[in-house]
TrEMBL record, chains A, B:
It comes from Pseudoxanthomonas japonensis. Keywords: Amino-acid biosynthesis, Cytoplasm, NADP, Oxidoreductase, Proline biosynthesis. HAMAP family: ProA. Residues 13-280 form the Aldehyde dehydrogenase domain. Pathway: Amino-acid biosynthesis; L-proline biosynthesis; L-glutamate 5-semialdehyde from L-glutamate: step 2/2. Its main location: cytoplasm. It is found in: Cytoplasm. Belongs to the gamma-glutamyl phosphate reductase family. It catalyses: L-glutamate 5-semialdehyde + phosphate + NADP(+) = L-glutamyl 5-phosphate + NADPH + H(+). Catalyzes the NADPH-dependent reduction of L-glutamate 5-phosphate into L-glutamate 5-semialdehyde and phosphate. The product spontaneously undergoes cyclization to form 1-pyrroline-5-carboxylate. Pfam families: Aldedh. The lineage of its organism: Bacteria, Pseudomonadati, Pseudomonadota, Gammaproteobacteria, Lysobacterales. This is Gamma-glutamyl phosphate reductase.
Length: 423, 423
């Protein structure tokens, strides 16, 4: 097996070609990749069957088995997602600003690819194709290290994608799948600071903390989404209830689902009994502070851990607060910097909430579930950042590039006097 | 002495107030800081004299003594620089994009402060005031750890700045000077991943590598500037010579000075003898490859190390190349990703050079010395990044913020069907 540093260096060497590829060539490549995935359906599904068999034998839970499972329809979905990336605008070469300086030099800020991006992720085999498509479209080389449970599926998917690269006359090392599944190999990979420009870990908090704590290269990550919804005094209760149910129930395993409901005490007596019933009907367990519990039959007492928890399940923590300031103080204390929502009719309260909190996504009267690259108009999502550097919140193609300076002059110098006396 | 974690936590707690301060209040604060620096002139210069005395006793070189030295005129310059930051546009709250989604939610990308920024730097005491002004203007708290040589100067400067904070009713912990000069304290500081949002090291390559290798928080840095100038066949020789002299001679200790001159072989026979004479007159030592040496009397043979070196002195490496492709290949091999210049009359060659190289700043027919925040119109410079993440090239106020998402709706949800059946 080739060692990881050699693989990474080959990937980096192949990065120059993809960085300079014209938009139409990249789009054609992505469409060819989608075709290759469909052409390899039998191989990919057979590989996936091996993964599923091994996972079942290990006694892996049904939720994870479902994330791992591919079928013809899901594979078509993966291919369609790759095609959609081909349709997105190319961020590379975009001129974000252009201006002349007083001395006449013309300055442009222009987006360039980051270089080599390493993705480290868990079970879902669709990430292999999604991440490859997004990284390549933004002109980057990509190193993929998926979970061991999906190794056969990932290898088959990567083989299809690599064939499309070769057929386009590109070195297939620009997309490198790491098949060596030892954790020491991840460790070595994330310390290659002269080779890798960015690591994006996706998966459980344990994996992400391992990467963040050991990386010698920049990491963009989020540990968890403890998303809050605050219902202000005088809020539209129907609207607040709709946002609560959408936020909590529509996909509890998503990081943009609600984990905590805070309610102003002046609206609690009418709103919380309705909320309790609507949540109960939908199977949501309620963990409430003392004031809220008195108004929500069937709720249990919330601990401090409950208010800090990302349940990823049909469970919600509920608290009653004295006023907007108390809601802000609660959120500041427990925030994961992901997404916070205020439901209010008072524009001044809305602005105060937006300004007082510095989470990646802050919302007024909208569902936390819109905190998503697709929903916010990025076209696709490579991950979500709760690190306030480079990118904050859902990350699309643009987050896989950086702006640099391009300067055009006609011989301008800083110290003309220096030049004159010489020959 | 209070331990560093306690200091950092106090700084972080004070960050909320500065993050929410209106622009005019921040500008008034900065002007008061400039006044406080001038009011403390006697104290600051006395403290500086103590540093200079200790440095002389240690036998520190004259260049470093000069960087350390303050006088009334230099202090006025420092105060003026703080005032200039007050005049710059405030990046916080800037809406960079605004759009509606098909479902009617309104999305804005809005700049917010990064949070807590740690600056780790060497001798120059002016950095204490410059960095404080830039970080605070961008709504950030700042932890400053300057070099031991400047400790008395830095303490006196920080005391003046902190007085202005207190008089403005702000907690002065928002600007924290680390007076504990042990290297273990830096180590502890740069591992406080729950407290510090960004570390910017400025100084020698040794300090920067130490920070980069041990940090558990994001680092923005550049190790060195090995800036290249390539003179194309058919270039205007007078123009090429002016850019060469400005690039090499105007301030050899700056990271944006030229270190390597590459010349197309078709222009070498006429250009290099002129360049050799002009450089010689100005005391520049020439280290040349075989072909260049034959045309540059007095030059010595360049080693591979010379082409990789940041001389920071009146020394230049010179090479003759067969064509533009060879120049690009040379620069790709030796680049520090800082700044590269092409001198050419051929627009197609200029575009090829700009596209083939991915350094932070690429220039056509302009001096490498323009690779500077002030010269490129950023107003001021907190540092230069050769890391392709967050910021690439000179960094101004905007680089001390990040864009987040602000969403305003009227009750939109992702799964309306989910809501209906409930009570």
């Amino acid at each position: 097996m080739t060692d990881i540093k050699t693989l990474a260096l080959e990937c980096r060497d192949a990065a120059t070609a993809i960085a300079g590829l014209p938009t139409e060539a990249k789009n054609a490549l992505l469409r060819a990749m989608a075709d290759a995935l469909l052409a390899d359906e039998a191989t990919i599904l057979a590989a996936n069957a091996r993964d599923l068999e091994a996972a079942s034998a290990k006694g892996i839970g049904s939720a994870m088995l479902d994330r791992l499972r591919l079928d013809a329809s899901r594979l078509q979905g993966i291919a369609a997602a790759v095609r959609e990336v081909a349709e997105l605008p190319d961020p590379v070469g975009q001129v974000t600003r252009a201006y002349d300086r007083p001395n006449g030099i013309h300055v442009e800020r222009v987006r360039v690819p980051l270089g080599v991006i390493a993705m480290i992720y868990e079970a879902r085999p669709n990430v292999t194709a999604d991440a490859a498509a997004l990284c390549l479209k933004a002109g980057n080389a990509v190193i993929l290290r998926g979970g061991s449970e999906a190794i056969h599926s990932n290898t088959a998917i990567a083989a299809a994608l690599k064939r499309a690269l070769s057929e386009a006359g590109l070195r297939d090392a620009v997309l490198t799948l790491v098949e060596d599944l030892r954790r020491e190999t991840i460790l070595e990979l994330i310390q290659l600071s002269d080779v890798i420009d960015l690591v994006i870990p996706r998966g459980g908090e344990g994996l992400i903390r391992f990467v963040a704590e050991h990386a010698r290269v920049p990491v963009i990550k989020h540990y968890k989404g403890v998303c809050h919804q605050y219902v202000d005094a005088g809020a539209d209760e129907d609207l607040a209830l709709a946002l609560l149910l959408d936020g909590k129930v529509s996909r509890p395993s998503a990081c943009n689902s609600l984990e905590t409901l805070l309610v102003h005490r002046d609206i609690a007596t009418t709103f919380l009994p309705r909320a309790a019933e609507a949540l109960r009907v939908r199977g949501v367990e309620i963990r409430a502070d003392e004031a809220a519990r008195a108004l929500m039959p069937g709720g249990v007492t919330a601990t401090d851990e409950d208010f800090a928890a990302e349940f990823l399940d049909l469970v919600i923590a509920v608290g009653v607060v004295d006023d907007l300031d108390a809601a802000i103080a609660h959120i500041r204390h427990y925030t994961s910097d992901h997404t916070e929502v205020i439901v209010t009719r008072d524009p001044a309260h809305a602005e105060k909430f937006l300004n007082a909190l510095r989470s990646a996504v802050v919302m007024v009267n909208a569902s936390s579930r819109f905190s998503d690259g697709g929903e916010l108009g990025l076209g696709a999502e490579i991950g979500i950042s709760t690190t306030r550097l480079h990118s904050y919140g859902p990350m699309g193609l643009e987050a896989l590039t950086v702006e640099r300076f391009v300067v055009r002059g006609e011989g301008q110098v800083r110290h003309p006097a220096l030049i004159k006396p010489g020959p």
